[in-house]
Amino acid sequence: MPSTSSVESGPDPNILSSMVKSPKSDKSKPLPSQPHQETLLHHFKLISVNFKEAALDSPSFRASMNHLDLQINTIEQWLTALASSFKKIPKYLKEVQSYSNSFLEHLVPTFIQDGIIDQEYTVTGLNTTLDGLKTVWGLSIQALSVDAKNLKSIELFKRHHVIKYKETRKRYEDYQAKYDKYLSIYLSSSKSKDPLMVIEDAKQLYQVRKEYIHASLDLVIEIQNLSKNLNKLLVGVNTDLWRNKWNIFGSRGVGDAIKEEWDKIQRIQSWNDSYTLAIEKLNSDMLAARNQVEEGCHIQFQPSTNVNDYKSTIINNRTLRDIDEPGVEKHGYLFMKTWTEKSSKPIWVHRWAFIKNGVFGLLVVSPSQTFVQETDKIGILLCNVRYAPNEDRRFCFEIRTNDFTAVFQAESLVELKSWLKVFENEKFRISGPEAISNGLFNIASGRFPPIISEFSSTVDTVIDQQLTNAKVTLAGGQIVAASSLSNHLERFEDFFKKYMYFEIPKICPPFMTDTTKSSIMAYCLTSPTQIPNALTANIWGSVNWGLYYLHDTARDSSTYLTGKDAEMIKFQEEHFENDKFYPDFYPKEYVNLDIQMRALFETAVEPGEYCVLSYSCIWSPNSKQELSGRCFVTNYHMYFYMQALGFVALFKGFLGHLVSVEFVSQKNYDLMKVYNIDGVIKMKVFLDDAICIKRNWFIL
Predict the structure, then answer these.
(1) Cα 493 to the chain's mean position, in Å?
(2) CA atoms of 612 and 209, how far apart (whole Å)
(3) CA-CA distance, 664 to 658, in Å (whole number)?
(4) Is the pLDDT of residue 269 over 60?
(5) Which CATH number is 336's domain given?
């Protein structure tokens, strides 16, 4: 029997520089982990994306925490208004009842029995109406009444969970402000400062950082608990409201419409019960993941006590090369030297930088602090990178191109060495014949604007502006311009209103920022890329963690796919990034689902594929775990996305391995069993039509 899912909570040392170094790590390359097909369901890793990003204090994490704080405040106001409305219902019902009684008294007055009106038929008809209206209005008023426990449950939620969140948020804000202050002061110290004093400052910063990371992880857990309890509250209140109506009308044969709605409500309640039980089983994993990440950060950020690591006078080319750094990819914070237009006095700003797939770029938190923006991606072959010994600050290096010169500061000597070495390693890799043949050399030789103009950095310092352009002219004269999402939405406004705006997102992304919805919709304009960008940052975080740990059982299926959808591949190549990426025969109601699939799986989606079936369910990858998510099926693959308590996992399977599909209808859900060559996958379907899903599976 399959065993339980494992949890990938620990840091990945060679992906993100701020995580723990493990000499035995087997994840040195940014490739999806690929378990053998026979153990498909035995080693199912869940990625603690929220904890990873919190430990990194990435732009995605900060933006998401700020966005969710605004949303929680809005939800609190909504719950207050909802509770106020509940309180008013008895008063209004009393007024309605008083009016209806008055109306009924006037409907059949006693004087109509005195002659001119026919008693046998007309008066009998009026009396029948009187009796009927008394029954209908009485039942209606009874149905509109609200149980006081609903009001009490809302008040309890606000008094307990919301207040607890606000206290946690306040601690987070206090520690964040303290950390930002200490970090800025520490890195602004002059190189002439006594190294022993700098070591003491580093130790103090280390303690403040520990407190901030602890508060950040506390906030992540509190938001997950708040979300879980908010869903439980709203689904429970909704079910109670409907149960009252059904108890009144259900036995009176009111028709199929109300029964259909009541059945749907019961299925939603069943989903909530199943989901609550499933995430309770993950609670211990969540706490273990939190502890592992926090302990790893304590090791990673432990400052050096070697006084020579703080002496700028002994730094030279030989000492800078004294590092065992094989990586060709790096992500992390740097301080950048810049100016404002109003003053020539230098300022140093915190920027998230990355080197990956031949380019260097920055991600920044928007001026509103609620979403992530990006700069241009600079090909590293255009960059002349060297140590900057003339800066007054420690650990600085310079990046010089024909268009700009920027000075960056690392936090430590080890980080300075690492950044310089990764630049060197990546340049060496790109100079090889393989990089030239696969086009990576051309990428590393160019400069590329943000993918979507709406996500371009709007930070107004001088260097930030130099690093961000709406369009760039390459060496060969080719102009590369950012696409405009707003123009695309305006051009197809009717289509987006009908099929997109209220349908995205159906999934719960790993991160939610102010522009997550726009980021997902932008995938109708852009092809997937492994290079970090603002779209990924507003959905996944600093990288697409799901692709690093993708459960891909389809890797051996390439022989089955050769030449299969050449027509659709050609169609996509000819129409991508223009107004007609989807063929005319493609169902419009599936466009939003296809876009969400591409936003989640990015480069894992094969050329020529489109989503032809999608449904939400609770998925059982083994005998002990149930994971809520959404399944996307194309003409050749099944893609499954799971998210719960901040854990995320991606799965990709080849439909050619499918054996059969069974369907069993339960009281409040439909159980589907999908058999493939590796075993059986069980799915509980609550809202979608399982019979239709099964039929489509057989067609595929």
Answers:
(1) 25
(2) 48
(3) 18
(4) yes
(5) 2.30.29.30
